[in-house]
Amino acid sequence: MGSPASRVSGVELPPVFCPFESAIHPRVRQIEKRAVEWIGDSGMCATERERAWTVATHSADFFARFAPVADDDRLLAAALWVYWGFAFDDARCDSGPLSSRPAQFNALAGQVQRACETDSAAGTDRFVGALQDIMRRFRGFAPPTQVTRFTHAHRAWLSGVAWQIGNQAGGRMPGLDDFLTMRLLSSGGEPTFALLELATGVEVPDRELHRPAVRALTEMAILVAALDNDRHSLHKELSGGEADQNLFTVLMQELDCPLQDAVTAGTGLRDRVVLRFVRLHDRVRPTASGELAGYLQGLRYGIRGNNEWGLRVPRYLSGGHWPDEMDDTLLSWADEPSDVRPGPVEGAPSVAWWWDPDLA
Question: What are the names of the required cofactors (predicted)?
Answer without folding.
Answer: Mg(2+)
